[in-house]
């Protein structure tokens, strides 16, 4: 079976709310694909449809080429963490997993293996009700891994975790991708995916806004912006603005320059005898790239709202 998720022309409406609007994208094996968009963008709805928990109005969602409902042993083909709270609080971690394994025809030894993988072996006999949020997320991930599936879907797994938990999840997702699995992980914060995702599917109001590698997105947003430091910020800004650049200060001695090459900036400042240091091409953060990407959509949305 191919380790892929293929979504094609997907649409879903709840009453008058369009949750998913003609969405098409593919999640490929061997990489972490981030699924990003603001709250209410349609990420959870898309994931639920892929997992057969909700029906689409139109379009299709396939795992390894087949719709979820036609998978013979779903847990061995796709694992999912949608809601870490969905465990009975009175149940011990290992009993919860054993029950899942048995009802899906999986060997009981998987329980110990997945608890070990997610770092919960020592808490195996504790009741889920006493778990911290981070432990519940790990238990949810252990459940997703029970069938050792080639495709994994995680809805906001980083939400509410402490820095150590976030570091752990990042490393774990990357190791799963390195094993050749297809990983789809959602977040409403681009910054959470900065060090985790290789590829991004960005949606807004249910529509696809970008389907791109992280490297390409950052390179495009970085463009030709120049960053420099100078003790004479205001004089520097005046000289560069007079030469036609768009200049913005980012702190008391640093500015960004759009519209002039680094060489031209150096020549202008040299001629004006203005000192500078750290003149270089600015590399956008993923957050900046995202803002750039969504700005047009926000403007479009605002216009669309006026009658
Ligand atoms: N069962 C439902 N009934 C009615 N409306 C729904 C239902 N599920 C989702 N919606 C609506 O569909 C839209 C998309 O919601 P969805 O939960 O898929 O977004 P999301 O991107 O996952 O957001 P979040 O980051 O907040 O989870 C929202 O406007 C939401 O209110």
Task: Summarize, please.
The protein is an alpha/beta fold and 307 residues long. The chain folds into 2 domains: 5-212, 3-Layer(aba) Sandwich (Rossmann fold); 224-281, Alpha-Beta Plaits (2-Layer Sandwich), CATH 3.30.70.980. The protein is 36% helix and 26% strand.
How are the secondary structure elements laid out?
Elements: E1 5-14, E2 17-27, E3 31-36, H1 43-50, E4 58-63, E5 78-81, H2 93-103, H3 109-117, H4 133-145, E6 151-154, H5 163-178, E7 182-187, H6 190-193, E8 199-204, E9 207-213, H7 214-222, E10 226-229, H8 233-242, E11 246-251, E12 254-258, H9 262-271, E13 277-281, H10 286-305
Parallel strand pairs: 3-7, 3-8, 5-6, 6-7
Antiparallel strand pairs: 1-2, 1-4, 8-9, 10-12, 10-13, 11-12
This protein binds adenosine-5'-triphosphate.
Adenosine-5'-triphosphate binds next to strand 2 and helix 1.
């Amino acid at each position: 079976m191919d380790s892929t998720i293929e979504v094609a022309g997907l649409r879903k409406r709840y009453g008058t709310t369009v949750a998913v609007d003609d969405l098409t994208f593919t999640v490929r094996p061997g990489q972490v694909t981030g699924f990003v968009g603001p709250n209410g963008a349609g990420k959870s709805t898309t994931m639920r449809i892929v997992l057969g928990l909700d029906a689409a109005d139109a379009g299709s969602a396939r795992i390894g080429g087949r719709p979820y409902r036609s998978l013979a042993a779903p847990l061995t083909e796709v694992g999912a963490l949608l809601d870490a709270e969905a465990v009975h609080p009175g149940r011990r971690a290992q009993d919860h997993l054993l029950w899942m394994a048995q009802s899906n025809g999986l060997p009981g030894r998987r329980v110990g293996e997945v608890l070990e993988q997610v770092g919960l072996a020592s808490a195996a006999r504790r009741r889920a009700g006493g778990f911290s949020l981070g432990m519940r997320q790990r238990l949810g991930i252990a459940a997703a891994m029970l069938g050792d599936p080639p495709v994994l879907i995680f809805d906001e797994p980083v939400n509410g975790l402490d820095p150590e938990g976030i570091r752990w999840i990042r490393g774990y997702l990357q190791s799963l991708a390195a094993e050749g699995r297809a990983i789809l992980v959602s977040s409403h914060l681009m910054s959470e995916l900065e060090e985790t995702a290789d590829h991004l599917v960005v949606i807004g109001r249910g529509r696809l806004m970008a389907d791109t590698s992280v490297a390409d997105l950052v390179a495009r947003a970085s463009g030709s912006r120049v960053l420099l430091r100078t003790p004479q910020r205001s004089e520097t800004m005046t000289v560069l603005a007079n030469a036609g650049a768009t200049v913005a200060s980012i702190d008391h001695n640093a500015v960004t320059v759009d519209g002039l090459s680094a060489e031209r900036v150096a020549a202008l400042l040299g001629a004006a005898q203005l000192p500078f240091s750290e003149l270089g091409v600015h590399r956008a953060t993923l957050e900046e790239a995202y803002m750039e990407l969504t700005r047009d959509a926000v403007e479009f949305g605002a216009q669309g709202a006026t009658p």
